[in-house]
Amino acid sequence: MGADLHCHSRYSDSSVPVEDVVLMAKLHQVEAIAITDHDTLAGQEEAKHYGAQYGVEIVPGLEISGYDYKRKQKAHILCYYPKRPEALTPICQTIWKNRDTATREMIHLVMAHYPITEEMVERRAKDSVSIYKQHIMHTLIDAGYSRHFFGKVNQSLFSHRNGLAHLDIIYPDVYDVLEAVRAARGVAVMAHPGESREKGLLEELSQAGLLDGVELYCPKNDEAERARVQAIADRYGLVTTGGTDFHGMYSSRCHSVGTFTATTAMLERLKDCASKK
């Protein structure tokens, strides 16, 4: 059974509508699921509706896009059970604005190499609160310029090193993200720590008492990383969680809903942490 506490829908950068994500959880006998779209809670009411319909517990949450400016790397924070979700609006709106500005510039850079239009990309992003690079790639695939979301075309356009259309999106400092989660009275969990090149952030935030938990079971945590994460969680009393980071066909990995899950005991501990906020 277990709980898949990290899934995305069409409200952000996934190809799959909320209903299907919840239904997939039911078909895979997952007891609970969290729709943790990037920087939005837009799909939560829909998730609750389909959760009740299919008999799947819905854990409210979102994934907030932050940045570790000391180590110059992304730092994503999962926020669960926010009791004051309106406190997250300012930081999410800033992220939407910055992402929209950068992504629209990227679209125009892509248009210099491929005959697509901004409107074509917008149609593929119509259910999302933001436009993502995945929507640009979806447009290119539909137009016949690529067969893969993460193949040669993606690399030539969006490589961080020399991509023809790559632009950095300005994200808030991870400390500001954690302050927003605290103001929302949510549970702050570091997402996929194995993604980080520099490993000091988890220890730093834990030592400062700013994290409530950390993702233990997820695609980017190999066995060695899980051992490291578990040791830090034990040292600082952090809740551990698990999730597939599901994005449908907008993912570079092939993992279905429920591939990586938190145990029932982990979910109960997460709920207990939330009750104390």
Give the percentage of residues in beta strands. Answer: 5-15%
Helix tally? 10
Q: What percentage of residues falls in helices of 4 or more residues?
A: 40-55%
- Element pattern in H and E: EHEHEEEHHHHHEHEHEH
The geometry reads as globular
Number of strands: 8
Euclidean distance between termini CA atoms: 27 Å
The biggest sheet, with number of strands, parallel, antiparallel or mixed sense and barrel status, is: 5 strands, mixed
- The helix-and-strand class reads alpha/beta
Query: How are strands sequenced across the largest beta sheet?
Result: 4-5-6-7-8
* Model regions low in confidence, pLDDT < 50 over at least 5 residues: none
Mean pLDDT: 96
Q: Please give the radius of gyration in angstroms.
A: 18 Å
- Please, what is the oligomeric state? single chain
Summarize the structure in short.
By secondary structure, this protein is an alpha/beta fold.
Write a structural description.
Strands 4-5-6-7-8 form a five-stranded mixed beta sheet. α1 runs parallel beside α2. Helix content is 40%, strand content 14%. It is of the alpha/beta class.
Protein topology:
Elements: E1 3-7, H1 18-27, E2 32-35, H2 44-54, E3 57-58, E4 61-68, E5 73-80, H3 89-111, H4 118-124, H5 133-142, H6 152-158, H7 174-183, E6 187-190, H8 200-207, E7 213-217, H9 223-236, E8 239-242, H10 264-275
Parallel strand pairs: 1-2, 2-3, 6-7, 7-8
Antiparallel strand pairs: 4-5, 5-6
Helix pairs in contact: 1-2, 4-5, 8-9
